[in-house]
Amino acid sequence: MGRGGSDEGAGAGAARRGAGGAEFTVPDFRCPFPGAVNPALPEASGRMWRWVEAQGLAATAEARAVIEQSWVDRAAARYFPTADAGVLALACRWFAWMVRNDDVHDVPAPGARERSASPHLDRLIASAVTGGDGGDGGCGVFGAALGDLWRRTAAGRSPGWCARLAGDFADFLRAYRTERDAAAGPLPGIEEYLRHRTVSYGMLFSTNFAELAAGDALPEEVRACPEFRELRRLTGLHGAIVNDIYSYPRELRSAYPYNAVHLLRSAHGGTVQEAVDRAAALTHACLDGFLAAESRLVPALAARGAGAAARAAALRTVSVMKSMIRGNIDWCHEVPRYASAPAGA
To answer: Which domain of life is it from (predicted)?
Structure first.
C-alpha cells in the first residue's frame, strides 16, 4: 500500500512537510481508488536504465541523480499497475526523458530559465509534431533520444493514436514556452494557471498510455466523447494540483512562483496550511467531477453509437485513470525529489 495512507484517504496523517516557516501537514486527498505497484517494475526499470544510458541521458552524475531521485520508474509502475512489461517499460522511458528535459528548464532565475530553454525548445516541439523522426533536430541527446523513443512507441500502433500522442506531447512542450514568456509579466490567476498546469504537468499526456495499459488504443468515437475528454482533463488536473502541494517547499526554496499553493496564498492570504487546504479542496472537486463524468460515460457513448466493445474498452481505460490518480498521490508522497530539505538548504 505504500506510504500514501488508506485507500479512502491517500495522504492522510502524513508527516509535516517543508521547513523554514513553510511547514504544512499533507491533507487528506479523499481518494477512494486502491493503490498498487506493477510487479513488472524490476524488469521495466532495467530496460529503462539501459535505454537511458544508451541515449546519453545520464552521462554525468548530476544527470543520473535527477532520474534516480525522481523515481520515474516507480511512478509509471504506480500509474499503470496492470500494464504488461513492454508498455510499462515504454512509459518508464518517456517519464525518464521528460524529467531530464524538465531539469534543463528547472533553474531558479527566470532569465537563466529562458537561456537554458530557448536553444532547443522550438526544435523539440517541431520534432514532436512530426513524430520525432527528424534525427536529433539540432537538440543533441534530447532530440536523438526523442526520435528513438518515438520509433519504439509508434511501431505497430495505429496512426490515429500516434497522431494524438504527438499532439499532446507538443502541447506539453509548449507549456515550457508559455511559462518562459510569462516570466516577465504578472503572475496568472488561479483559474488561468490551472488550465496551463493541467497540460504542463504531463499527466494529461500520460493518459494516452492508460489506453495501452488497458489493452489497446481507443477508437476515435471514444476519444472524441466529451465525457471521456473530461475524464482525461480531470485526471491531469488532479495530478497537477497534488504535485504542486508536494513540490511547494522545493519550489519555494528556488523562488519559483508557478505553483497552485503559492498562487492561492497570494490571492487569499493566510497561512501556508490554509493555502494547502484550499488546493486540496480543488482536488476534491476534481474527484467529484471525475466520478460524475464516469457515471455519464456509457450512456453518452451509447448515444453516439459506440458498440459494446468500445464502451467496455473505455471503461477499462477509465479504471487505469483511477490508478493514475491514486498512483500519483502515492508517488508524490514517497519520492525523494519532493522530500523536505533541511532549513536553509
So the answer is: Bacteria
d(CA 340, CA 342): 7
Q: What is the pLDDT of residues 83-121, one digit of tens each?
A: 999 999 999 999 999 999 888 765 444 444 433 444 566
- Return the H-helix or E-strand segment holding 234: helix 226-253
Contact 33, 326 (CB under 8 A): yes
Nearest CA-CA partner of 92 in 109, 75, 69, 116: 75
Q: Which residues pair with 16 in a beta bridge?
A: 25
Q: Enumerate the domain spans of the chain.
A: 1-32+187-345
0.85 surpassed by pTM: yes
Cα distances from 202 to residues 147, 169, 172, 261, in angstroms, run 19, 8, 6, 19
Please determine, looking at this structure, whether the domain spanning 1-32+187-345 carries the CATH number 3.30.830.10: no
Residues 147, 150, 156: CA angle, nearest 5 degrees = 140
